[in-house]
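=== Per-residue structure ===
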Amino acid sequence: MTARLFPSIARSVAWLVLALVALGAGTTAPVAAGETPKAVITVKLESPEFLVNIMKYRVLFLKTERKFIPLSGYDFGAALADELLNVLAEDSRLEWRLTTEADGLDAGKLWNDSTRRRLELADGAKAVLLVDVIEYGAFVTDLGKDKFFVHAGLKLVDTSTGKRIWQKKHFLRRSDLEGKLDALQADEQKGLKLGINAALEEFCRETAAELKKVAVPQ
């Protein structure tokens, strides 16, 4: 009778091992001792087009107009994400990377705190930085310098709980453009794109400075 019990016990142990492996397959990879926790950047644009706010001063009133212009051969969302990655790399508390299709992150859905749940990423990333660009473009006036602007919402999320760690709902950053907008659009918008890149660097450095004040998940 004792001999017949051994195969049964062996089968039970085997099934237990398989069950544990199956359960472990869907969990987030743990951070090894001494390894820097990972974090992910995801950027969402409400509109890919460059917004121009034209302000015309009159004697008794201010007339404003809005129009959109396409940026030829320039991906604003990708440029913003790349610059954020470069600047945030200086903060050694987290190892930053850009989101990929494999992550399956929908920045629009993740923005809602009430519906967001735990996020399980294959590389065990501990945090996700959500960047929602509400609009970007230029303020154009006949009485002063034209200005580039970015209006965005920022939110850092803990993947283990889905809870918000930090947020800045309305981050409006303005920077002087080196010249008038119309002139900067010459030569395939080269001057305009250089101006945007310079302004993006300021936006990203200010974002990084804010994040350095925040306690990040480890």
User: Anything to note?
Assistant: The beta strands are 38-45, 50-57, 62-69, 95-98, 127-141, 147-158, 164-176. The longest helix spans residues 186-211. Confidence is low (pLDDT under 50) at residues 1-6, 13-28.
